[in-house]
Specification:
Phosphoribosyl-aminoimidazole Synthetase, Chain A, domain 2, 60s Ribosomal Protein L30, Chain: A, alpha+beta, seven-stranded mixed β-sheet
Length: 227
């Protein structure tokens, strides 16, 4: 979905955060983040506060919004990128897991600074029919039922096609991988076959819709016991 993002920032500054040594690096980092997503800072307010308070309001304007609803019988289910890295990054920080490179760096980057798939969504909105879409924030096990329910359809998921980086299953169970949230990948339905990569990002067809039943079912059955 192509949109024009605008940001409004209310910034409550404590005495410590009112000093130049805090404000300058914060301003530079904020500008870098806004520029990377082509976001315009439109206004807001600053005020004194006993502690640091940041309130951000982001508004997106589009002529062709994607909703969670709108899926049709026979649509293909696609997932960008891969899943599992965010939870692995959390476990590295929380539990001190000893993970070799480059997997360690990839996991920490995904957990600490996840990137929204804006380039992919813009390209899809221009050239490909998308029935409905949502980003992956609560993990596949929680987000897939939301997508199915919104379109009043069933989702048949092929567990063997879900993209998982090699070696992740050494450290996480399949159930943990499918529960990994804050991945910010896209899960969406489309009536057409799409290329396997778009904007240097993988697109994987992991299932399809059906009107025969409602909800989400995972196949093959031999892997269900691992969820």
């Amino acid at each position: 979905m192509e949109f024009l993002p605008k940001l409004f920032l209310n910034l409550g500054l404590s005495t410590q955060c009112s000093k130049e040594e805090w404000i300058l690096p914060f301003s530079i980092s904020l500008q870098e983040s806004l520029s990377s997503y082509n976001i315009e800072l439109c206004g807001g307010d600053t005020y004194r506060s006993s502690s640091l308070n940041l309130t951000l309001t982001l508004i997106g304007v589009t002529t062709k919004p994607w909703k969670r609803s709108g899926g049709k019988d026979g649509d293909f289910l696609y997932l960008t990128g891969s899943v599992g890295l965010s939870l692995l990054g959390y476990k590295i920080l929380k539990e001190g897991l000893d993970i070799p490179e480059p997997l360690r760096s990839l996991a920490l980057e995904r957990h600490l600074t996840p990137k929204a798939r804006l380039k992919v969504s813009k390209e899809l909105s221009k050239n490909s029919p998308v029935s409905c879409c949502m980003d992956l924030t609560d993990g596949l096990l929680l987000d897939l039922p939301k997508l199915a329910s919104s379109s009043n359809l069933g989702l048949k998921i092929d567990l063997e096609k879900i993209p998982i980086l090699s070696n992740i299953l050494t450290y996480l169970s399949l159930g943990e991988v499918l529960s990994s949230g804050e991945e910010l990948e896209l899960i969406f339905l489309s009536p057409v076959e799409l290329p396997k990569t778009l904007c240097e990002t993988s697109l994987t067809k992991i299932g399809n819709t059906t009107s025969d039943w409602k909800g989400v079912k995972f196949f093959p059955r031999k892997l269900r016991k691992n969820l």
